[in-house]
Design a protein that fits this description.
- The complex is a heterodimer of chains A (276) and B (434).
- By secondary structure, chain A is mostly helical.
- Chain A has a domain of 167 residues: MetI-like (MetI-like fold), CATH 1.10.3720.
- Helix content of chain A is 71%, strand content 0%.
- Chain A has 14 helices and no strands.
- The longest helix of chain A has 32 residues.
- Chain B is an alpha/beta fold and 434 residues long.
- Chain B has 2 domains: 171 residues, Periplasmic binding protein-like II (D-Maltodextrin-Binding Protein, domain 2); 228 residues, Periplasmic binding protein-like II (D-Maltodextrin-Binding Protein, domain 2, 3-Layer(aba) Sandwich).
- Chain B has 17 helices and 10 strands.
- In chain B, strand 1, helix 2 and strand 2 form a beta-alpha-beta unit.
- In chain B, helix 16 runs antiparallel to helix 17.
- The longest helix of chain B is centred in the last third of the chain and has 18 residues.
- The chains are: A mainly alpha (276), B alpha/beta (434).
- At the A-B interface, helix 6 of A face strand 1, helix 2, strand 2, helix 3 and helix 10 of B.
- Chain A: It holds the Pfam family BPD_transp_1.
- Chain A: It is found in: Cell membrane.
- Chain A: Its main location: membrane.
- Chain A: One of its GO terms (biological process) is transmembrane transport.
Chain lengths: 276, 434
């Protein structure tokens, strides 16, 4: 039964929630605002909040200087490719761990997570050398694989927790009705786990989109995604904050829009199984 | 089904490879005004030679790590790398770079400023061609100096700088006598502190590679720097680097700023700077009786990694981008004030340039006053003015920089900072086998 909530309490909670939300969102808002200022306004002190001459010149300069669409396309392929590939590997893995666990399942799960404990830079040189040998440097395919591997533990863990919420009896019933392993996973398990899979997909797409270590280190001219696009506007000798902000805004815009439209799905997936 | 997919994937890849057959060179570079201008003018090079150019622009620290990793592993991602004066002799000694000793006569390598040539050579051979060069100098507010009743000499001493800083400081109106670098990093605060040390007669190492931070010269230099910044500097100076001080100066909050000569074109640009018409320039200071000044020497230069398959095309590009003709091209399209400074003698003999760039004379004199092969009063085993050209320097400089930044933040005294820096540097040098 729901608890009775007084109006006053509702108002307080709403105000606090909005306050925290705005605080977290403020750096992004500030970046967006700065992108519409001139370089001189961007550094002015006291800072200008809303009342300045809004200009699109930074966007024009960024457009002229860089091939935004190429970076965007690379980001879409790398983030999308690694997420889809990750799911293809992780769904069967999570299925086996959730429904036919062995004595070692818990250890395997922990071991997988342990690969996230090593700082990425620790394996930079080995991976770089392997990439040279395999001719994968500065290719989208190489990045799809590396980023998939990096996110794989998270994908498996998330899917594993969702799958555990699904009663094994339903799968058993499907098997009794003559479903093979493929049908069982594809037609019975997957539809039931759609909210979980969707939120895993979204979260990993966002993680892959924002990944800025491997994407900067393993790319050069042809396969560089939006992270490299932002990095190219950072300057230690010269004040280009407004242009940098414009580049950042252009880089986060697609993911911001995606997040906005899918927030319901994301929240539902992340809290899936929390309430019985 | 699977076979079909593999086949179509293969044909897509083949198509992608086919389109890349025209000769293309890839250049790694930093994001600064001069480099961006060069990217904009590249089509002139392509029209002349038919060679396409791909740019990979990165933030300075990322670039440094990225190109080092690529050259050390022979990754072959870049045909030309933008590197600094610090890397050039070290990489040349490792045979990582293609010598630039066979550029055509029309290139006129003798026209390159001697100090730049010295810093970008190894055993007398040029390994990187300077795209632009800089030293450091005093930039000051002529109006505030006048109000204070002082006149800046062309070659000030440290005591004069301290006197002027005191006279100009007006904390109530947020005007600080002097803005200096405090942010930790070998290329940030340590570049500046090392030049102060040089001008106080100190040196990083003696001829046996023993760290000298425990000497009275270092003690005096660091105490002086700390006093200046604490008494007449802006609040929060321990996190100020080039960009932060540039921003403060442009907003009229600094009486003086000692930093890279390249800043002169920013602070005199009326579109960005509120004090554009009241900036004067002077040589970096020295201490009475010591003939080394606190000015550094730096160049961003273009170099070709050994092992590139496109050495000829890369050389053609360097020949174009660092030539006299390129300077003329920039002048024609963007105006003389935007020509990359500090690389060629002929530029400073050009009256049109000298008129368009009020800071040109002082830039040239500052560069001339810098000698990377003899940076200190006492002899040293290393090359480099605001850095020590050994691979360990990036680590050592950054470790020591953190101690001095903590000192500026008020967390420790100059004695403590020097003491700890000396210990850390000695440990690192011993571990490196010196």
């Amino acid at each position: 039964m729901a608890r009775a909530v007084t109006t006053q309490r509702k108002v307080t909670n709403t105000v606090i929630a909005w306050g925290v939300g705005l605080l977290i969102f403020f750096p992004i808002l500030w970046t967006i605002l700065t992108s519409f200022k001139t370089e001189a306004q961007a550094i002015s002190d006291p800072p200008l909040f809303l009342f300045f001459d809004w200009t699109l010149e930074n966007y024009a300069i960024v457009q002229e200087r860089s091939d935004y669409m190429r970076f965007l396309w690379n980001s879409v392929i790398i983030a999308g490719g690694s997420t889809v590939l990750g799911l293809v590997v992780a769904v069967p893995a999570a299925w086996s761990m959730a429904f036919v666990p062995s004595r070692r399942t818990k250890d395997v799960l922990l071991w997988m997570l342990s690969t996230k404990m090593l700082p990425a830079v620790g394996v930079l040189y080995p991976i770089y050398l392997i990439f040279i040998r395999l001719g994968l440097l500065d290719t989208r395919g190489g990045l799809v694989i590396v980023i998939m591997l990096i996110n794989l533990p998270i994908i498996v863990w998330m899917l594993y927790t969702y799958f555990r919420e699904i009663p094994g009896e339903i799968l058993e019933a499907a098997r009794m009705d003559g479903a093979g392993l493929r049908e069982e996973i594809l037609y019975v398990l997957t539809p039931m786990a759609v909210p979980g899979i969707a939120s895993t997909l979204l979260l990993n797409f966002i993680l892959a989109w924002n990944e800025a270590f491997w994407t900067l280190n393993l790319t050069a001219a042809t396969s560089a995604p939006l992270t490299a696009f932002i990095a190219s506007y950072s300057s230690p000798e010269g004040l280009f904050y407004a242009k940098l902000s414009a580049a950042s805004t252009m880089a986060i815009a697609p993911i911001l829009v995606l997040g906005w439209f899918s927030q319901k799905q994301l929240v539902r997936g992340l809290t899936f199984g929390a309430v019985k | 089904m699977l076979q079909k997919t593999v086949l179509s994937a293969a044909s897509v890849l083949a198509l992608a490879a086919g389109t890349a057959s025209a000769q293309t060179i890839t250049i790694a570079t930093v994001n600064n005004g001069d480099m961006i201008r060069m990217q904009g003018l590249t089509n002139h090079f392509t029209d002349e030679t038919g060679i396409e150019v791909e740019w990979v622009t990165l933030e300075e620290n990322v670039l440094r790590q990225r190109v080092t990793q690529d050259i050390a592993t022979n990754g072959g991602q870049f045909d030309i790398m933008t590197i600094g004066m610090y890397e050039t002799p070290i990489w040349a000694a490792q045979d990582w770079l293609v010598p630039l000793d066979d550029l055509p006569d029309s290139y006129d390598a003798d026209d390159i400023l001697p100090a730049m040539r010295a810093g970008l050579s190894h055993d007398g051979t040029l390994y990187a061609a300077p795209f632009y060069g800089e030293s450091s100098m005093v930039m000051y507010r002529t109006d505030l100096m006048e109000e204070a009743g002082l006149e800046m000499p062309d070659a000030p001493t440290w005591s004069f700088i301290a006197e002027a800083a005191e006279a100009m400081t007006d904390r109530d109106n947020e005007i600080y006598g002097i803005c200096l670098r405090g942010k930790a990093g070998w290329g940030e605060n340590m570049a500046f502190i090392t030049t102060v040390a040089n001008s106080f007669g100190a040196r990083w190492f003696n001829e046996d590679w023993e760290p000298q931070l425990d000497t009275p010269e270092w003690q005096e230099a660091v105490t002086f720097y700390n006093d200046l910044i604490q008494n007449y500097g802006p609040p929060g100076a321990s996190t100020n680097g080039f960009n932060e001080n540039l921003s403060l100066f442009q907003q009229g909050k600094c009486g003086m700023w000692i930093d890279a000569t390249v800043a002169a074109s920013f602070v005199t640009n009326p579109d960005e700077s509120t004090v554009a018409d009241s900036v004067g320039f002077a040589l970096a200071p020295n201490r009475e009786g010591i003939d080394k000044r606190a000015n550094w020497l730096w160049a961003w230069a273009l170099a070709i990694p050994a092992g590139t398959a496109q050495e000829d095309a890369a050389k053609q590009f360097i020949n174009w981008a660092t030539s006299k003709e390129y300077l003329a091209l920039v002048a024609e399209t963007e105006g003389w004030a935007n020509v990359p400074p500090g690389s060629r003698t002929s530029l400073y003999e050009n009256p049109t340039y000298l008129e368009a760039a009020p800071f040109a004379k002082m830039t040239l004199e500052s560069i001339r006053a810098a000698d990377p092969t003899e940076p200190t009063v006492d002899p040293v085993p290393y090359v480099g003015i605001q850095y020590v050209a050994i691979p360990e320097w990036a680590g050592i400089g950054t470790t020591a920089g953190q101690e001095f930044s903590a000192m500026v933040a008020g967390q420790q005294t100059p004695e403590e900072a020097l003491d700890r820096a000396q210990t850390l540097v000695a440990e690192e040098m011993e571990a490196a086998g010196y």
